[in-house]
Amino acid sequence: MYGLRAKAKNFSAEDMKEGVDFAHEHGKRVFVTANITAHNKDMDGIRRYFGELKEIGPDALIISDPGVFDIAREVCPEIEIHISTQSNNVNYGTYLFWQRMGAKRVVSARELSIKEIKDIRAHIPDDLEIETFVHGAMCISYSGRCLLSNYFTGRDANLGACTHPCRWKYYIMEENRPGEYLPVEENERGTYIFNSKDLCMIEHIPDLVDAGIDSFKIEGRMKTALYVADVARTYRQAIDDYFTSPELYESRKDYYMDEISKCTYRQYTTGFFYGKPTHEGQIYDNNTYVRKYTYLGIVGGITEDGYAVMEQRNKFCVGDEVEIMKPDGSDCHVKVLAMRDDKGEAMESCPHPQQMIQVRFSETPDLMNLIRVSCE
């Protein structure tokens, strides 16, 4: 509610409680973002919200604002506090300050290099955790503190309402020639001068581990379940492979890159990890994503006669070849044999967004498996 996802369909308190309980039953932790730059009008609501979270019981709050931090310490002191990247955490003094205030973990700014993170680790206690973004969209502004969105549209990025003006196409106007717009052109499509590539560090896991990073953070704001599942699963595999055997990890790099490229992405960069990005870190000729697969839905149940119950996310048809995504990576290609609506009426396709459907595949998926289809 007070995180940087204002356009998201956020959880109700009941939904959040159900989700937290579900995660805990499966041995997973849940962190709740409350990292807006808060104004006076937000403070009473934040206090009430933290009171609700105290009852729900997440494992940590991610906070950037000192005033919000104080409210959390007062209202729900038993919940860990992690300091958001929005706090521009770029030196070990900042880390030590937040630890003295009671923080358990600090999320480093995206603008830090591997060398700088390693130096921070050398100057802070072992029990102060470092979390670092390793994958996802990059912001043209310092640690996401963008003013362009607010200036152009009145929608404040620091309150979670960013309109992503960094992805827009721009012209130049010379002050003595008002109304005369001069194109900035890389090619016939123009130039997107603020448009960064996406961060991807899956080929550099050893360097991240050696730097002393405790938690790898994947940017997934407003992304699909397919994106989150695919990227998180692949990084989990890469990390586990590396700790099993560095040679195994090296031998599977092509697989990791191929797998994370199956979800929507822009071209990839290593960001600031190996020095300040050059022009190679930008995409100047377009602002579009690369999309190789389409998300069809997630299996919410299995009927007695073997149909998968799904909420449709994109249209597909009887006879289509699709892929079942499984948590352990043992994905399988299957055929859509039959389809019916929630009243049991047979269908040849499911054209209506978020329609509840039942699908028979040539192999029955498991509960919570994701279904996707290649666009190629």
Coarse shape: globular
Radius of gyration: 23 Å
Q: How widely separated are the two ends?
A: 38 Å
The CATH topology of the domain at 13-134 and 205-262 corresponds to: TIM Barrel
Oligomer: single chain
**Strand content bin:** 15-25%
Helix content estimate: 25-40%
Catalogue the unreliable spans: none
Structural class, by secondary structure, is alpha/beta
CATH class category label of the domain at 13-134 and 205-262:
Alpha Beta
Please report the total strand number as a whole number: 16
CATH homologous superfamily designation of the domain at 13-134 and 205-262: Aldolase class I
Number of helices: 10
CATH-derived architecture of the domain at 13-134 and 205-262: Alpha-Beta Barrel
Overall pLDDT metric: 87
Largest sheet, described in full?
Answer: 8 strands, mixed
Order of helices and strands: HEHEHEHEHEHEEEHEHHHEEEEEEE
Q: Can you offer a commentary on this structure?
A:
This protein is an alpha/beta fold. Among the domains are: 13-134 and 205-262, Aldolase class I (TIM Barrel, Alpha-Beta Barrel), CATH 3.20.20.70; 294-374, Elongation Factor Tu (Ef-tu), domain 3. Helices cover 28% and strands 21% of the residues. The protein is built from 10 helices and 16 strands. The chain has helices at residues 13-25, 40-56, 66-75, 92-101, 114-123, 148-153, 205-210, 225-244, 246-251, 253-260, and strands spanning 31-34, 60-63, 80-83, 105-107, 129-136, 171-173, 181-183, 198-200, 215-218, 268-269, 293-302, 308-311, 321-325, 332-341, 356-361, 370-374. The strands form 3 sheets. Strands 1, 2, 3, 4, 5, 8, 9 and 10 form an 8-stranded mixed beta sheet that branches. Strands 11-12-15-14-13-16 form a 6-stranded antiparallel beta barrel. Strand 1, helix 2 (40-56) and strand 2 form a beta-alpha-beta unit. The protein is globular, with a radius of gyration of 23 Å. It starts with 12 loop residues before the first helix and ends with a strand. 34% of the residues are buried. The model has no long low-confidence stretch (mean pLDDT 87).
